[in-house]
Amino acid sequence: MYRIVVVSDTHKHLDYVISFLDNLNSYDMIIHLGDNVSDAEKIKKLYPDVPLIAVCGNNDFHSRNAPVEREYVTGGVKLFLTHGHKYGVKFGYERIYFRAAELNSQVALFGHSHIPLCVSENGILLLNPGGYNSMQRSVGIVEIEDGKAKGCLIPC
Q1: Do 38 and 62 meet the contact criterion of CB atoms below 8 Å apart?
Q2: Four-residue CA torsion sign, 132, 28, 61, 100
Q3: pLDDT at 30
Q4: CA angle 144, 91, 113 (to 5 degrees)
Q5: What's the Cα-to-Cα distance from 42 to each of 17, 36, 46, 47, 48, rounded to whole Å?
Q6: How many Cβ atoms are within 10 Å of 26's Cβ, its own excluded?
Q7: Do the Cβ atoms of 69 and 89 come closer than 8 Å?
Q8: In angstroms, rounded to a whole number, what is the distance separating the alpha carbons of residues 156 and 140?
Q9: Cα distance between residue 107 and residue 120, in whole Å
Q10: What is the spatial distance between Cα 16 and Cα 150, in angstroms, rounded to a whole number?
Q11: What pLDDT, on the 0 to 100 scale, is given for residue 47?
Q12: β-strand 29-32 against 117-121: which pairing, if any?
């Protein structure tokens, strides 16, 4: 099984993420979905042996270190990564769902709204890990095994 930790919208508040990572038994990758993508660089310095990929958010206009969206394939599963602001996720999830479908992705990872979400729609997992100022802070976990992905949110 391949386990990915997903965070977003940390906005320079990394204490809960670091505490979570330090107490998690095992994970294979970290994904940061923007706002502040510079936090991803700090996480990478703390955990240099763990692969980390990131995308920029709407508050990352100063950064050229990460794309606005990207696709990533692992274990036979295609993931679509974006911050979510380009897809109006504060007003609904239809646009991000259709973009993931258009890309033939099995997983759409996004943030922006600071509202944790983990649902599966017609074979596409939609996961938003929330953010530092969410009512309930959480991180997302995506587990990939035998070409299938499942996700969950873990309060922290």
Answers
A1: no
A2: negative
A3: 98
A4: 55
A5: 11, 10, 6, 9, 10
A6: 6
A7: no
A8: 10
A9: 9
A10: 23
A11: 96
A12: unpaired
Task: For residue 102, give both structure tokens.
Answer: 């258009």
pLDDT of residue 76: 96
In whole angstroms, give the CA distance from residue 119 to residue 154: 14
Q: Which among 90, 93, 112, 92 has a CA at the least distance from the CA of 32?
A: 112
pLDDT for res 63 = 67
Chunk the chain into consecutive blocks of 10 residues (it has 156) and report each block's average pLDDT, rounded to whole numbers. 96 93 94 93 95 92 80 97 96 97 98 95 96 83 97 94
DSSP-assigned letters across all residues of 40-85? HHHHHHHSTTS-EEE---TT-TT--SS-SEEEEEETTEEEEEE-SG
Closest among 110, 77, 97, 99 to 6, alpha carbons compared: 110
pLDDT at 65: 72
**What are the structural domains, with CATH classification, of the chain?**
2-155 (3.60.21.10)
pTM attached to this predicted model: 0.95
